[in-house]
Amino acid sequence: MNTFLETSRLILRPWQEADAEALYKYAKDPAIGPIAGWPPHTSIAHSLEIIRTVFTAPETYAVVLKETNEPVGSAGIMFGDGMHSAAMQADEAEIGYWIGVPYWGQGLIPEAVRCLLQRCFTDLGVSAVWCGYYDGNTQSRRVMEKCGLTYHHTESGNTSPLGDIRTEHFMRITAEEWKALQQIREINKDARSTELISQLTQVWESSVRATHHFLSEQDICNLRPMTKEALRTIDTLIIAFSANKPVGFMCIQDQKIEALFLAPGHIGKGIGKRLIRLAINRYKAFYIDVNEQNTQATDIYRHLGFEVFRRNETDSQGNPFPILCMKFNPN
Questions:
Q1: Could you give all domains of the chain from N- to C-terminal order, each with its CATH number?
Q2: pTM, whole model, 2 decimals?
Q3: How far apart (Å, rounded) are the C-alpha atoms in residues 182 and 121?
């Protein structure tokens, strides 16, 4: 039975022999195959042979652009009994993908990979998904990061399908991690109801009382209306839910994390780290200002790659609370 999957811009469907010309059009480019370990296609006949052999494997999809109805890439789910790179358990899978150079940087492959992750975890009962990339293929790594996978391990001395020896890095996401990510959603301004703002303000206040012991009761009272206004007007508001109730939120403006707060009962459960990674990988938010006294927060940001580049003696309201200005360093 053929499976057809759909996203907002893509259709993922089985490859057809009639796709050979389109496949050759993109797979002949030397920027595509060699970095992933396979040779550029040499002719339409070569592409047709790949469709008849390699692409007949289960869960192998042509990535078709809805706008043109043309296959522009390929993505697939691989299992332990087929072609794969990761050392997987029986109930795990690996996702592989590529897309034609004209479509790089448009978010199409992350869109396809998120669709395949959903298929893995909701339809196929997979417990974890792996992705591998060879040293230097930073674009592929970025796709994995955007889709919520995190680094697992590196293997040196692996032989690629081209026969050369390479270093391969592996990233992974479990079913539990994926389900947790589905509880994190961006909320547009027109969907921020009075009730939602009230709930988020309660999250903020409970979080502040649990972590910002240097603030007085008057400080909290003074900050409360400013917090409500920021929640209403900030460009990007991302909320973490549990049982349909907000338990944390993050505000982003101009590549900067302006706020991140979690209800006390949900601190230390990985939600904060997931929000920060989301900010870095999907929203390219590389800056954050942190109260110096909030050592728990500064330690988390440092652990995730942020470094202090400036220290201010006062906060943005001129209060005597030193601020550490931090920037993400991917190295």
A1: 5-180 (3.40.630.30), 185-328 (3.40.630.30)
A2: 0.77
A3: 12
